[in-house]
Amino acid sequence: MRALCWNGVNDLSVETVPDPEILNPHDAIIKVSLSTTCGSDLHFIDGYLPGMREGDVFGHEFMGEVVEVGSQLSQPRVGERVVVPSFIACNRCWYCRHDLFSLCDTTNPNAELQQPLLGYPTGGIYGYTHPFGGYQGSHAQYIRVPFGDANCFAVPDDVTDEQALFLSDAVPTGYMGADFCEIDAGDIVAVWGAGAVGLMAARGALLSGAGRVIVVDRIPERLALAERLGAETVDYSAVDSVQEVLRESTGGRGPDACIDAVGMEGHGTGLQQLYDRAKQLLRLETDRATALRQAILGCRKGGIVAVLGVYGLTDKFPMGVVTNKGLTVKSAQQYGQRYIAQFFDYIQQGDLDPAALITHRMSLEDGVRAYDYFKNKKDGCIRVVLQP
């Protein structure tokens, strides 16, 4: 089959690789209908996350059709159209039984690579480094899904492929950030980052009852889409201080909750950005944590900061601010299996249209060009959908 492969830092190619096979009686094989670029991929493409190997197929956000199932699977059925969360759950361990699906104790066969770094291994994820399981990714014609009964969700007839696609990762990641914020009716929520995850966090906050959502970014097309989704916006490149803007627009108190949907390759302004950029280029730290610092400083006292961005080793983390302001910090990789049925309802009711994230469509054969557009934000790119 054809697949998009990682061959080294900023070195991608579309190659012919072996088709996936049933390895376990609970496996399903999915013919990929659509996959999409994701900002998390950029971290290992740019060399800031270790653990990729030459020839690895990457990608973790996809939907498609079931073409083969293991002998012990009654669900899903061959021929069903399904969407699959990016983190792999078993539905049997303690963590899965407590709806903490990305923390699954069963689905990471390379736990020994993670445990020295994290203390305890997480669940596996498709196409996202060997410490996260070394699974073949979704930018391919076919993909193997372990524990198909726990991870394949049948797509209703009135939900399109394009809408279902983003339920694999962008929608649940963003919505989980809003869920972490414990929003009361009328709360003010600020979101850093107007990529797909940030936009879905903003929409999720509004669906959860927020009175106002303020999205912070610098890209005009992304800020415009945030406004179409119901948010207010701040262009951080056009103001002296995001914190001052938030203070003034909230009567001096600050947002009730803040969501960081940026992560380790954040952009900013001023000396702090130059400092972070220099240390990151020299590999003295992995993170440009501009958004995280601003979220912590901007949040009101006693508020909640939800961290959705991927981070490694963060310098100058303002722990004293967290303590003295009485902040609660919540973070996780997405618990997609927890939310998908609810998302289908939102889509069917007209409250959510994830297809609004699509700015470009390309063939899988154009995967290298797709990531060039995505990484460099060419032609107003927010998300590229790839079709094998």
From TrEMBL:
Record keyword Metal-binding present: yes
Keyword Amino-acid biosynthesis carried by entry: no
Cofactor: Zn(2+)
CDD domains, per the entry: FDH_like_1
Keyword set, alphabetical order: Metal-binding, Zinc
SUPFAM superfamilies: GroES-like (SSF50129), NAD(P)-binding Rossmann-fold domains (SSF51735)
Residue span, Alcohol dehydrogenase-like C-terminal domain: 196-263
Domain of life: Bacteria
One function term, GO molecular function aspect: metal ion binding
Alcohol dehydrogenase-like N-terminal domain residues: 25-156
Alphabetized Pfam families for the sequence: ADH_N (PF08240), ADH_zinc_N (PF00107)
Name this polypeptide is given: Glutathione-dependent formaldehyde dehydrogenase
